[in-house]
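Sample entry (452 residues):
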Amino acid sequence: MIMPFQQSKYLDLISPVSFLVDFVIINYIAKLLPINLEVDLLFHGYISLGWLIIAFKTEFYVIRRHAKVVHILRLLVQQFFIYFLIVYAFIGFFKQPNMSRFALAQYVGIVFVSVSSMKLLSYYLLMKYREKVKGDLRDVVVIGKNKKTDQLVQVFNDRTEFGYRFRKQFCPRSENFDLKACFEFIVSNKIDEVYCSVSELKNSEIIDFINFADNNLITLKFLPDNKNLYSKKLKFEYYDYLPILSLRDIPLHNPINAFVKRSFDIAFSLVVIFGVLIWLGPLLAILIWLESPGPLFFVQKRTGLDNREFYCYKFRSMAMNKDADKLQAGKNDMRVTRIGRFIRKTSIDELPQFYNVLFGNMSVVGPRPHMLKHTDEYASKVDKYMVRHFIKPGITGLAQVRGYRGEVERDSDIHGRIKFDIFYIENWSFLLDVKIIVQTVLNMFRGEEKAY
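Predicted structure, serialized as tokens:
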């Protein structure tokens, strides 16, 4: 049972916009005050980089919907204590004896008040937006009927500023409890998050819930009252005073990480489009048409983020045929043209997907998008296959540089691909993306066995 597209309800732009506003504040105030800088550009670059590094380390822009004001204040104190030390270290690092210490203290104080005011105001407005306007809501279901689950339901109902919309509570100990009916309710009502009291579930039912959530793009969380659950890598959060465990932490669900990745995607795709495709496209159009009349691009529907369909672009490498949307290219495939064989071998046929990256359908690095037919096929027979749709698909990916590219000939091919896709999703970092891109370029020159 596969859930169709779930519409994202996160306000993804809040953290990136907050960062840009803070970035303007710390630089604008430095410009206004008489700090007596010898090299303005050096100081502005120094404080900007310092602010960014500290923010990443303290997770300054990661604000959970259930966060309290005290958590915001703790983040502000952490951020500015370290920032204060870094700003004053500038004097010693760059030997600036003429800098005004008093003006520097004024600067840090004014920035602290300004940034704190903006952060608390945005936090308050977001809470009110969820409470009054009923925007940015997450539909939730609770599995279990006991003191802790009742407290959690009360939190969802009373703390409306958290943005959770409680839909239903299931009691596994009830004689009428039906796991299949529970799953059907979750799917038909497009539930975003499921909260389980694991003390009321059998081990087999816990596994069923984990597999169901993974295969249907649902966030699964637990009330920690079962010791067996602690054998997994879990993440603690607090809703009011209730501890909640998250089964899977996805780095790209962090708005700052998503912003960094998206910024890189846009910059990289623009370089490729204006540096390569602008002249290579017309040349290939002539060569492709001379051998096989038809369009330059092969356009195919594929599944991406949240199982949404999108049109994926490639340079056409085959003669026009009716099986293009059903049958993957195989070894010595008669449909592949001579120029098509070359561009497939060198992966040049994938270059138009940088338009997909620019449009926001894809990323430079991520799980490769599959045809709709294959998504339906693999989702029904490969466990946790749908986890790969928690993030945008990529032009290249970890599975591809580890040898799992091209045609799926055996079951082990798709299982290996999913294993590396899930590892990438759970362990994303910017450096990992860079490593995969470098490896992909090297493989293009070396040639790959399954590039046909």
